[in-house]
């Protein structure tokens, strides 16, 4: 079983990643602001399923596939870095949209919200890097049952990630109303969000040449 140090380290890593704007946060906030908190929480169910899929695949051999086919892993990270760079540009460009600004989104059914949350998470490069590159760093072969350790660490990640995102969903509407009444704050929020996204994109781009490790 994993140590308390490993569990705590994993929790801190996921806390930092969950608080950094990315595809999941962008989608959940947009749904919460545009269609209400319930829609945001329903979308979060899809995100949770996506985490479970990644955790299962990573622990039954997906990492082996990326090690055997290095270009696939490198290409996946390159696409992810490019996508985050695009999101950063969207926030920083003149007339861009901030994370908590209302947008004209159509009202989707709960089933569609779950599916969109699932797809968004499955295509999220941050989650892929987390499961393929970061979680393995906390696995200690000396403690045995590495697969069980992988599932335990994945569970810690899911609990922390979903808790953070649920709190963001619940607060999104209030934050959006506050920013709407204070245009200057909304402008700075866009700049901060765009800068954080750009930072993550650059960090991922620097890691693109690195191959997956067994």
Provide structural commentary.
This protein is mainly alpha-helical. It has helices at 4-19, 23-35, 37-60, 62-68, 70-92, 110-122, 125-134, 146-181, 183-207.
- Shape summary: globular
Number of helical segments?
Answer: 9
Strand runs, count: 0
Poorly predicted parts: none
Report the helical percentage: over 70%
Largest sheet: none
What order do the helices and strands follow?
HHHHHHHHH
Task: Kindly list the characteristics that best describe this protein.
9 helices; 214 residues; mainly alpha
Describe the protein's topology:
Elements: H1 4-19, H2 23-35, H3 37-60, H4 62-68, H5 70-92, H6 110-122, H7 125-134, H8 146-181, H9 183-207
Helix pairs in contact: 1-8, 2-3, 2-8, 3-6, 3-7, 3-8, 4-5, 5-7, 5-9
In brief:
With 214 residues, the chain is mainly alpha-helical. It is built from nine helices and no strands.
